[in-house]
Design a protein that fits this description.
Blueprint (H helix, E strand, L loop, with lengths): L3 E4 L9 H11 L3 E7 L11 H8 L5 E7 L7 H7 L3 E5 L6 H10 L3 E6 L17 E5 L14 H14 L5 E5 L7 H7 L3 E4 L1 H4 L3 H13 L3
Parallel strand pairs: 1-8, 2-3, 3-4, 4-5, 5-6, 6-7, 7-8
Helix pairs in contact: 1-8, 2-3
Bound molecules: D-xylitol-5-phosphate and zinc ion (ZN).
Length: about 220
């Protein structure tokens, strides 16, 4: 299984965003996790297409765009144009989830579906075969720097069993409160993409990325 670190730029210094992205890219992050918030699906507002476009040229890493937005299909085409490679939408924010997933794929992006902590893993049963990734939120979405919700660990195991049973290769991403303290238990439970905001950007970002990668190397 391929293990990927996805630093969340929400915790980066926005005044130096290009160099913050370059630092983690050079250090070996596989994805750049980009949190888009609309002030409706989640309380806060982060940034949108122009900011994403402005950092597109500083790395060729996968732009993993986490849409914390109501009816995100409205922005799929604009996100593709801004440089998104993978568009991840919340199950709770899409009235017609299948349509939105097909729309994302038809635009040539990878498609992901995200679940809030309290949304059951089983809710992706029918869409599982259609997506490249399932994102399990391990905090309530909207802010960086929150505490990991422990019950999500069991949910990762449940989802991994569903994926393996069907012989799928869907990625499991975990997002929120992830750090070196709980990364190992998440990998053991079956996650293979870890998002880390504060755990990467607090302190020496390059060294933090390397520490995660060292841990991943033990599991690859
Ligand atoms: C939360 C965002 C996360 C956040 C993670 O709503 O989706 O991606 O940036 O930040 P940390 O790793 O600090 O919990
Ligand atoms: Zn996120």
């Amino acid at each position: 299984m391929e293990y990927i670190l996805a630093p969340s730029i929400l915790a980066a210094d926005f005044g130096n965003l290009r160099s913050e992205v370059e630092t983690v890219s050079r250090a070996g992050a596989g994805y750049i996790h980009i949190d888009v918030m609309d002030g409706m699906f989640v309380p806060s507002i982060s940034f949108g297409m122009p900011v994403i476009q402005s950092i597109r040229s500083c790395t060729d890493k996968v732009f993993d765009v986490h849409m914390m937005v109501e009816e995100p299909g409205r922005y799929a085409e604009a996100m593709k144009a801004a440089g998104a490679d993978l568009l991840c939408v919340h199950q709770e924010a899409c009235r017609h989830l299948d349509r939105t997933i097909q729309q994302i794929k038809s635009l040539g992006m990878k498609a992901g579906v995200a679940l809030n902590p309290a949304t059951p893993a089983e809710s992706v049963e029918w869409i599982l075969g259609e997506v490249d990734m399932v994102l399990l939120m391990s905090v309530n979405p909207g802010f960086g720097g929150q505490k990991f919700i422990p019950y999500v660990l069991e949910k990762v195991k449940r989802l991994r069993a569903m994926i393996d049973e069907r012989g799928l290769s869907t990625d499991i991403q975990v997002d929120g409160g992830v750090g070196l303290d709980n990364a190992e238990s998440l990998l053991k439970a079956g996650a293979n993409i870890l998002v880390a905001g504060s755990a990467v950007y607090k302190g020496d970002a390059a060294a933090n990325v390397e520490a995660f990668l060292k841990l991943f190397a033990q599991y690859s």
